Amino acid sequence: MNDLAPLLTPEGRALLDDVRGTAPADELAVATRLRREHPAELVSAALGQARLRQRAVAKFGAEDAERMFFTPNGVEQSTRASVAAYRAGRLKSMGVTSVADLCCGIGGDAIALARAGIRVLAVDRDPLTAAAARANADALGLTGLIDVREADVTEVDTASYDAVFVDPARRGGRGRIFDPEAYSPPLSWAVQAALRAPHAALKVAPGIPHEAVPAQAEAEWISDGGDVKEAVLWFGGTAPGGVRATLLPGPRTLPGRGLPDPEVRSVGRYLYEPDGAVIRAHLVAEVAQEVEGGLVDATIAYVTSDALHTSPYATAYEITDRLPFNVKKLKALLREREVGILTVKKRGSAVEPEELRRKALPKPQGPNAVTVFLTRVAGAPTMLLGHPA
Fold first, then answer.
1. pLDDT of 285 above 60
2. Core-most of 107, 126, 180, 231, by most CB within 10 Å?
3. Rounded Cα–Cα distance for residues 22 and 50 (Å)
4. How many helices and strands, by DSSP H and E, does the chain display?
5. Which pLDDT score is estimated for 109?
6. Distance (Å, rounded) from C-alpha 87 to C-alpha 81?
7. Is the distance from CB of 223 to CB of 206 less than 8 angstroms?
8. Quick one: 200 exposed, middle or buried, by C-beta within 10 A (0-12, 13-18, 19+)?
9. What confidence tens digit (pLDDT) does each residue in 160-202 have?
10. 178: Cβ–Cβ under 8 A, 6 or more apart, which residues?
11. What's the first-to-final CA gap in the chain, in angstroms?
12. Strand 163-166 vs strand 199-204: parallel, antiparallel, or unpaired?
């Protein structure tokens, strides 16, 4: 599909309504039926768009996804709506009323910004992607706030905007790009664009090394439902050099306080598994202080404590057993305790959870559930058994 225009015609829109919700197993029969009255290419495009819309529901929700237009890369790379809405809300709270959204993709972030009441210039150099962004602004009734421009972002004048938002492409022909200078455009260019604006937000991969964060930026790692989604570098109206972890829904934000690394201590009654955003932001020490705990190992981001605390930034488990790593002993213990549900988590172990689950519980039976943590304690491979506290 190299042109959205046919799908935007009355015939194309009618076809999209006709194929909505088509199951993969039914596509051939539906295509055969529709090709009797419509051009084959248009039918194929409509079915392809229906598949993309189904994939997009997880990010945009059914109500929006069924009205929007997507490209394969657009679905893959676009921001989850909840994360985009949070980010737009932060910009709004800074007093931002206009944003130049550079590398706008299919317009997911521009939509969130416009819904926050912010005027948006959405720029992308790919003609099909820009067409999708324009169609989405129209489909969601936001054309009054979103101006889509097909252009090279490095040639766009952003001086009249309160803020710039840059979401560089982080995928190439060989998959994910980990070097920030290999982004398109490079992170160094995005930083210079940010420094020229009163406010800026740069979306980067959550695995960005802390040493790659510019000194002028505040770095924020964001998770949604426990999954780390992105890191954002904020400029203007924030604390340069600051670090924070934000958990959605909520939002709940844990700011860094510059604490030293937690001490290592013996495994206590409770184990705390920090949220991924907390770990990426290097804020495990803040969680350890909150739950009166320490680390099970100097290199492992598991916190242990004898006290039970409720924290939005970590999940607590009550530990019942500590064993050296031994599959046979684990298998016997699970059989003795009539375990039918085994959850395996790991940090600092080369063992794959599914492999251990298959070997330790080949025939699940019994009413009880156990969580096994494969980790290191004082450098030794260890299994910690427990359940959510």
1. yes
2. 107
3. 7
4. 13, 18
5. 97
6. 10
7. no
8. buried
9. 999 999 998 776 666 677 788 878 888 899 999 999 999 999 9
10. 205, 207
11. 51
12. parallel
pTM: 0.91
Query: For residues 265 and 291, is the Cβ–Cβ distance under 8 A?
Result: no
d(CA 20, CA 6): 17
pLDDT band of 2, cuts 50, 70, 90: low
274: enclosing H helix or E strand: strand 270-274
Partner residues linked to 207 by β-bridges: none
Which strand ranges, in their side-by-side order, compose the sheet holding 146-150?
146-150, 119-124, 98-102, 163-166, 199-204, 227-235, 218-224, 243-248, 252-255
* CA–CA separation, 18 and 37 (whole Å): 13
* Nearest-angstrom CA–CA distance, 378 and 315: 22
Of the candidates 2, 171, 183, 3, which has an alpha carbon nearest to the alpha carbon of residue 102? Answer: 183
Contact 184, 219 (CB under 8 A): no
Q: Looking at residues 314-343, what average pLDDT do you find?
A: 95
pLDDT digits (tens, 9 = 90+) for 223-266: 999 999 999 999 997 789 999 999 999 899 999 999 999 999 99
What are the start-end ranges of the H helices in the chain? 10-19, 27-34, 40-60, 62-65, 72-77, 81-93, 108-115, 127-139, 187-195, 276-280, 284-290, 327-336, 353-360
> 164 and 194 in contact (C-beta within 8 Å)?
yes
The closest alpha carbon to 74, from 143, 133, 137, belongs to 133
Looking at residue 169, its pLDDT comes to 78
Distances (CA, A) of 147 to 68, 265, 294, 313: 17, 56, 51, 38
In three-state secondary structure terms, 179 is coil
pLDDT (0 to 100) of residue 149:
96
Which residues make Cβ contacts (< 8 Å) with residue 332, sequence separation at least 6? none
Largest CA distance in the chain: 73
Q: What is the mean pLDDT of residues 269-283?
A: 97
Query: Is residue 298 within 8 Å of residue 376, measured between CB atoms?
Result: no
Residues 115 and 369: their CA atoms lie apart, in Å, by: 44
